[in-house]
Input
Amino acid sequence: MAAEYKKPNLPVRVMNASIGVVIRLGLSPQGGQLLTVRGRKSGKDMSTPVNPMTFEGVEYLVAPRGDTHWTRNLRAAGEAQLRLGRKKRRIRVVHELADAEKPPVLLAYLERWASVTKGHFGIPWPNPGEADITRVCARTPMFRIEDLG
Output
């Protein structure tokens, strides 16, 4: 199954903009941060709220809406910035996960973020079936990231 992109509707875009303002102020609804990455076509910095997650000592970015602009930009740039308030850190993509590597990361992500992201995945929670997990993993980009010291 090819990756898909679930374009955010107007209410979601307004909510993301509002969350972005809150994150810039240093408040983090449920641990979200602002990802800023150079646009692959425009060359301009683009920002969006994301939910970085540490799982088994490794940090990941998961794209609940599928192959979004930020995922394509991150692939092209290879690095970005995560921000919470004044605290900024440069990150780089270490590895984009293959479908076979994704299930434990997806389940950990949903365990942490299901309250705000399960609707994007279209997966029954808290007891998804193996077929649901396989389907969602095939359409969900996931990146292992690390700080650029």
